[in-house]
Write the structure tokens for this entry.
Amino acid sequence: MGFIAFDIPLLLDYGINLSERRSREHIKPRHGGGETIVENLAWSCFGCNAHKHTKTQAIDPETGEPFFLQFLR
């Protein structure tokens, strides 16, 4: 997917440096039935998205409780 002008404010709000590698993250993962459509995509840093990969849950290091990994709009 190409980078288009209206995405710039979203990138800046999310804290992504425009000179760094970035990717589009599926809000609902493809392996969970999520589609590659605009409504299901969000910008993320390449490293974060690659590390998350297909994980949908993680353990909060402060509380030890599980939580869902998702992009919150």
In short: Residues 5-68 form one domain. The first strand starts at residue 22 and ends at 26. Residues 1-9 have pLDDT under 50 and may be disordered. The CA atoms of residues 58 and 64 lie 9 Å apart.
